[in-house]
Design goal:
It catalyses: a ubiquinone + reduced [electron-transfer flavoprotein] = a ubiquinol + oxidized [electron-transfer flavoprotein] + H(+). The protein is α+β, with helices and mostly antiparallel strands. It is 23% helix and 21% strand. It is globular, with a radius of gyration of 24 Å.
């Protein structure tokens, strides 16, 4: 099967990672010749300890924690929201609106792991204002940062040298009339201001690390993360216990692949009747370009090159109306790709070199970079939305319309509907002292809304790309499905999860990526520097491994270390292990931009992403 195309004569990108990969190949062969390495207890030098986090190594079995006071302060709210994105803030605003309408006292608390509201938000973004119109009808008077109405749409198929236009008909998913190009982080920060004006208590820099349960098993609330733990897992002199936040109802609005949402889904079996979620990784840059290349309100999307026809993905290019001529450019790669040598970051860099694309950026300067995973499963992958004590909203529940490349308005609407259902339960006086309230009619509200209707119409578009015809079959089927309004009497399915899709390295062709020029294309570390990412250095890595031996035994030996390529931030690196005479995985947790790709794509699901200390991570400015 063909892989991403290569230009004849391109030079291999020989940075540190490339040199490491040469060593990897050598040591992978030696691993297979050492049967004693199959036994961890017999070969600890070959498999040094990597993970020190208490979720893997419990503190009650660690004598260093024997004398530490583990009591936590407890606070209580009526409604608790985990996550300060479009869904969580819309839920908070709607809840306070309802309380005011009904003359009810309602304490609403929202915790957000970013140091500032909006600091971890990354999206294209071309926003459909339908939910905002409902939530805050006078948003224009309140100066919401929606400054760029869409003026023109373009959709194209790229070959290696050509750009072939694809028509956009009124009412089709790619028709963006009436939408706005936005910097979503700024919109979210503005929503935070509106929420605080209504009396919502927002706690930025506060990472929700643990779910708390009542004796009957219902959700009681969350605990925030402890601080002052050393990299070795021991308490430091600055150790401080997190606090408990209890609530009658807890709304989880963590975004795509939220780590607490994962736990809730597993505990209550919320995925028992839906397809596995499938994901993409979206990478984005913001550029200041030459004024003559700037066309505020222009929205462009492409499919095709540099990806092969069996790899799902495409690009976006949005021209913003800002004081300086800014564009947002991004590239999405479906995480169901099969070649372990594929690097989404490098595919993005290569995309910008296309002869019909590069002219936009020549003479300009890149000012921001970031990446985030996104849901692509759509209708088939929506889980059960409620459970005793709470519910899921937004991207955490999978509300994403892939053909439209939009989910923010669904996130907002789902948060609003969840708040309405939760408030109805709370205001009814049904509160029980030792049990959480389930917003039981929230799923019915979703099914009666445009969220459900829209996602049902396009349910077969994304899975249609899994046929033998790949891209061409998917485009043809999607066009047919759109023409009939999604009324075909069948539903296609996604099949196996993304992490099962990688083929062994021996079955795939390595991809040679060109060296970055520092003007149009860039290396990974200089890109991460633009994210403003910062974590406390002396803390356990929040990228935890269930088994420290799996990366070398399995991922390196069979798949040639794919985590070094699928991570868009240089977190994972295979380096020489001098003591063991082999290679070892090095986790550069300080680089992590909280995209969640590793948690999704790791072939054995050995990586489990958990929250670092609150306030850590990227510091995006309107991404």
């Amino acid at each position: 099967m063909p892989v991403a195309s290569n230009c004849e004569g391109e030079r291999t990108y020989t940075n540190n990672m490339a040199r490491n990969m040469l060593n990897i190949a050598k040591y992978s062969r030696t691993l297979l010749q050492r049967p004693q390495l199959r036994h961890y207890s017999e070969a600890s030098a070959q498999f040094p300890k990597i993970t020190t986090h208490y979720t893997i190594h419990p503190r009650d079995k660690d004598p260093r924690w024997g004398e530490v006071d583990m009591e936590r302060f407890v606070d209580e709210a009526d409604l608790l929201i985990v996550g300060g994105g479009p869904a969580g803030l819309s839920a908070a605003i709607r809840a306070k609106q309802l309380a005011a309408e009904k003359g009810q006292e309602l304490r609403v608390c929202l915790v957000e792991k970013a140091a500032e509201v909006g600091g971890h938000i990354l999206s294209g973004a071309c926003l459909d204002p339908v939910a905002l119109n409902e939530l805050i009808p006078d948003w224009k008077e309140k100066e919401a940062p929606l400054n760029t109405p869409v003026t023109h749409d373009k959709f194209s198929y790229l070959t290696e040298s050509a750009k072939l236009p694809i028509p956009i008909f009124p009412g089709w998913p790619m028709d963006n009339r009436g939408n706005y190009v936005v910097r979503l982080g700024h919109v979210v920060a503005w929503l935070g201001q509106q929420a605080e004006e209504l009396g919502v208590e927002i706690y930025p820099g506060t990472a929700a690390s643990e779910i708390l349960y009542h004796e009957d098993g219902s959700v009681k609330g969350i605990a925030t993360g402890d601080v002052g733990i050393g990299k070795d897992g021991a308490p430091k002199d600055t150790f401080a216990r997190g606090m408990e936040l209890h609530a009658k109802t807890t709304i989880f609005a963590e975004g795509c692949r939220g780590h607490l949402s994962k736990q809730v889904m597993a505990r209550f079996g919320l995925n028992a009747e839906n397809d596995p979620q499938t994901y993409g990784i979206g990478l984005k840059e913001v550029w200041e370009i030459k004024a003559e290349n700037h066309k505020p309100g222009l929205v462009e999307h492409t499919i095709g090159w540099p990806l092969d026809r069996h790899t799902y993905g495409g690009s976006f290019l949005y021209h913003l109306n800002e004081p300086t001529p800014l564009v947002a450019v991004g590239f999405v790669v479906g995480l169901d790709y099969v070649n372990p040598y594929l690097s989404p970051f490098q595919e993005f860099q290569r995309f910008k070199t296309h002869p019909k694309v590069r002219s936009t950026f020549e003479g300009g300067s890149r000012i921001a970079y970031g990446a985030r995973a996104l849901n692509e499963g759509g209708f088939q992958s929506i889980p059960k939305l409620t459970f005793p004590g709470g519910c899921l909203v937004g991207c955490g529940a999978g509300f994403m319309n892939v053909p439209r490349v939009k989910g923010s308005h669904y996130a907002m609407k789902s948060g609003m509907l969840a708040a309405e259902s939760a408030c109805e339960a709370i205001f009814s006086g049904a509160t029980q002292e030792k049990a959480g309230l389930e917003p039981k009619d929230y799923p019915d509200r979703i099914k009666e809304s445009y969220v459900w209707k829209d996602l049902y119409k396009v349910r077969n578009s994304r899975p249609s790309f899994h046929t033998g015809l790949g891209l061409f079959g998917g485009v043809a089927y999607s066009g047919f499905s759109i023409l009939v309004g999604g009324r075909e009497p069948w539903t296609l399915h996604h099949g196996s999860p993304d992490h099962t899709r990688l083929k062994p390295a021996k079955e795939c062709k390595p991809i040679e990526y060109p060296k970055p020029d520092g003007k149009l294309t860039f290396d990974l570390l200089s890109s991460v520097a633009l994210t403003g990412t910062n974590h406390e250095g002396d803390q356990p890595a929040h990228l935890t491994l269930k088994d420290d031996t799996v990366p070398v035994k399995n991922n390196l030996t069979i798949y040639d270390g794919p985590e070094a390529r699928f991570c868009p931030a240089g977190v994972y690196e295979y380096v020489a292990n001098d003591e063991g005479g082999n290679m070892k995985l090095q986790i550069n947790a300080q680089n992590c931009i909280h995209c969640k790709t590793c948690d999704i794509k790791d072939v054995t699901q050995n990586i489990n992403w958990v929250v670092p200390e609150g306030g850590g991570g990227p510091a995006y400015n309107g991404m």
